[in-house]
Amino acid sequence: MSASSQAFPRSNGPVAVAGAGISGLSAAYTLRQAGIDVVVVDPRPRAGGVMETTRLAGCLVEGGPDSYLAQKPWATALIRKLGMEQELIGSNDERRKTFIVRDGRLVPMPDGLLMMVPTRILPMVGTRLLGWPTKIRMGLELLRGKPVDGRNIDVSVAEFFRDHYGQEAVDYLAEPLLAGVYGGDPERMSASSVLGRFVELERKHGSLSLGVLRERKAAAGKHPAGPIFRSLREGMGSLVERLVAAIGPERLLLGQSVVALEPQHEGFHVQLEMGAIQASQVILAMPAYAAAALIAPLEAEAAGLLERIPYNSSATVALVYDASQLPRPPEGFGFLVPRRERQTLVAATYVQNKFPHRTPDDKVLLRCFVGRAAEENELLRNDQRLVEAVLGDLRRLTGLSAQPREQAVFRWPRAMAQYEVGHAGLVAEVRQRLATIPGLHVAGNAFEGIGIPDCVRLGTQCAEAAIRASGPD
Ligand SMILES: Cc1cc2nc3c(=O)[nH]c(=O)nc-3n(C[C@H](O)[C@H](O)[C@H](O)COP(=O)(O)OP(=O)(O)OC[C@H]3O[C@@H](n4cnc5c(N)ncnc54)[C@H](O)[C@@H]3O)c2cc1C
């Protein structure tokens, strides 16, 4: 999101980018490509924000994101610009099978779901995941007519989905699928911001299932089939390394926060914990609550709105086993645990099935995801207690009782923005208000997409707006 693209008095200083996550790095890279000087500031000792790749017992371990949705083009475009195309890998979709926990047991997710929308009758009839009333309701949903006026007010994801398929489908499809991405509460999440495509399908077709089927028919043969998720051979951290190299490591000020911003006749005085920068423009690519603190003295209303965007905390726990420790090889990509099942675990990925080249043949790597809205007290446990809770869940749910050979915990406090009901309106108002501060731009996962591709898109757009605002040479 760009606060302003209007030209304003030019200064010769660099563009200051506050935040060295993928949003800030994408912005800084785009600016450097246009020959504009940048300084990237981040309080952490390393660049990448929540993107962190490491190695454990010969396995490539992702502490934060492990891949991105292939369907969204912006991350792939950035990877290509960086000359990393050869390093792109796809998820091993031949083994794509996901389980959902129901009454303490792993149940395969029925075939034919597009995200959470059922499109095939037989697999839905046969599944143990849902009871007959829900199955009948899913069949009848196909007969749902177009809404007379459409939905002109935002509703929660739970309300939207319940209206189509009932509460059980919210509990055992929508909630676990979205918790694995947002860690959020479907009763609070915005349908238009999180399920915008389905809100549009409802407007056009009434029935979501029918809408998906018609859309699919219209698109048949138009898009080449490819993997659902993409990643990089050496992990998402290799994208961070390549971005830093392209930006120039000397342009990164790590271990330093931006603590205040002061607009001046030409550009900004950017106060750091130690020292200051004279910047021509500023891109804030940090969590909304951190940006709010800097914006408050300049535009109190915009800051108040940014502060209202909640963030969830999460952690991933990587567990490495010798393959011989497991009674049988785990099946599929992994499993999701609905909140109703009352476990610590939100999801677990069997890495060797999703991205086989990331583990040696004799190792099994489980990537466990913890952290769900209103359950952050789980994260307050110390690392050992967190691991014990996760191991307890694995024992109950999968029968795996062996102790891992190696383990690692990665904590991400207040890193996942939550798009609550009314989010799009809030973001539009923030945009409008910040447009009164020329040269200030805001990026990050708080606005129009939490995934890596959307963060790349917004960071790049901010940089393009900054390039336009700096005027012709
Ligand atoms: C565990 C986990 C798993 C995920 N999995 C996936 C996935 O598989 N696929 C996917 O597409 N997405 C995934 N996501 C989401 C995605 O990774 C993030 O939304 C995205 O990386 C956020 O990037 P960002 O640059 O906006 O924010 P961050 O990466 O949070 O970076 C923001 C940076 O701002 C810095 N900062 C804070 N305050 C200041 C200040 N005052 N001055 C300067 N800098 C400051 C912070 O230190 C931080 O480094 C996942 C997220 C998490 C946490």
Verbal overview:
There is one protein chain. The chain has 473 residues and is α+β, with helices and mostly antiparallel strands. The chain folds into three domains: 15-49 and 236-309 and 419-469, FAD/NAD(P)-binding domain; 112-219, protoporphyrinogen ix oxidase, domain 3, CATH 1.10.3110.10; 311-417, Polyamine Oxidase, Chain A, domain 2, CATH 3.90.660. The protein contains 17 helices and 22 strands. It has helices at residues 22-33, 74-81, 121-126, 132-141, 157-165, 167-182, 191-194, 196-205, 208-219, 237-247, 288-295, 300-307, 351-354, 377-380, 383-398, 423-434, 452-469, and strands spanning 15-18, 38-42, 53-56, 59-62, 68-69, 88-90, 98-102, 105-108, 113-114, 117-118, 229-232, 252-254, 258-263, 268-272, 276-279, 281-284, 311-322, 334-336, 345-350, 363-370, 406-417, 440-442. It has a seven-stranded mixed sheet with strand order 8-7-18-19-20-17-21. Strands 12-2-1-16-22 form a five-stranded parallel sheet, covered by helices on one side. Strands 5-11-6 form a three-stranded antiparallel sheet, with helices on one face. Strand 18 and strand 19 form a beta hairpin. The longest helix is centred in the C-terminal third of the chain and has 18 residues, at 452-469. The relative contact order is 0.22. Residues 1-7 have low confidence and may be disordered. The chain binds flavin-adenine dinucleotide. Flavin-adenine dinucleotide binds at residues 18-24, 41-44, 49-51, 64-68, 257-258, 285-287, 290, 314, 316, 412, 415-416, 444-445, 450-452, 455.
